Amino acid sequence: MTDNKPTDNRVRREDVIPDLPVPAAPRAHVCVLASLNYPDISAADAALVRRFTRVTLATLVELGASYELWDTTEALEDPSGAAAFDGVLLLGGGDIDGSCYGVSTRHPASYGIDARADRDAFAVIAAAEAADRPIFGICRGSQLLNVARGGTIIPDIVDYALHHGAPGEPEFVDEPIDIMPGTRLSSILESARVSGRSGHHQAVDQIGTGLVVAARALDGITEAVEDPDRFYLGVQWHPEDDDGPEADRLRLFSAFVAAAEKSRLGAVAATRE
Q: Which GO terms describe its molecular function (predicted)?
């Protein structure tokens, strides 16, 4: 019997594509931006990238959306092309290069930094935002949304117990997260507190222009940011971890797909005028 499992840490595109038929008449067509590989990725993190990306793509398809996966492992040919999609979803990965938010000295705990991938991601965000497309970011994706608006990042959370496991323990923990009342996120999740799957050593620090805190950890760390005036939403935890609550994942992804569908219908109507 042949074992087709990867023998190294490199994540291949075929590892993450779900075995599901893409809708022939999709509600929305989504650009999914992922870093399938990044410098010094560990075997454990490569396994998470495979699983989380596959769950993300499967969830989009199950909700009636189609997708195109853009992998920033290699330079994107035309990041501005993100404007042609109905929405953009940014997934997790390595840390953002500190130079992107004004830090010149690399923190010793930093991991997986790829400044070129960061620049490509910011170009995708800028194109999607200029085209008024809904944008949803997860973990690194949420941090990218904040930095794209001029915000900063905590380089390493010293008191980390709420946010990731200790050395030698499982990386991911179930984290209680308080959702801020009156936010878009609150209306999506319909709960004052959720349990999120977390494995992050960094988080949003100074909030970017036009953004508000949409969720906090019990220690006050920012766990979500959003723009109150448009669908520009980032969550620090991993709703695409299928070890976490399915209902919360479906609420978040459904809201994003609905916003992308609305964007699609608006674009079609505009072409008919």
A: gamma-glutamyl-gamma-aminobutyrate hydrolase activity
- What pLDDT does residue 273 have? 57
Can you tell me the distance from the alpha carbon of 49 to that of 42, in angstroms, rounded to the nearest whole number? 10
Q: Where exactly are the structural domains of the chain? A: 26-271
The reply to whether 31 belongs to the active site is: no
- Active-site pick, 129, 175, 223, 240: 240
- Residues 100-135 have pLDDT tens digits of 999 989 999 999 999 999 999 999 999 999 999 999
Quickly tell me which residue has 């410098």 as its tokens.
Answer: 39
Pair type for strands 29-34 and 66-71: parallel
Cα 268 to Cα 273: distance, rounded to the nearest angstrom: 9
Give the pLDDT score at 271: 63
Quote the CATH superfamily of domain 26-271: Class I glutamine amidotransferase (GATase) domain (3.40.50.880)
Low-confidence ranges of the chain (pLDDT < 50): 1-4, 6-7
- Alpha-carbon distance of 49 to 35, in angstroms, equals 8
Q: CB atoms < 10 A from the CB of 25, how many?
A: 6
- C-alpha separations of 105 from 47, 111, 208 in Å: 30, 14, 21
Tokens of 117: 């991938």
Q: d(Cα 186, Cα 171) in Å, to the nearest integer?
A: 27
Tell me the whole-structure pTM to 2 decimals.
Answer: 0.95
pLDDT tens, position by position, 173-209 = 999 999 999 999 999 999 999 999 999 999 999 999 9
- From the candidates 29, 200, 201, 238, give the one annotated as an active-site residue: 238
Is residue 200 among the annotated active site residues?
Answer: no
Q: Is 14 known to be catalytic? A: no
HSE-CB for 132 with a 13 A CA cutoff? 8
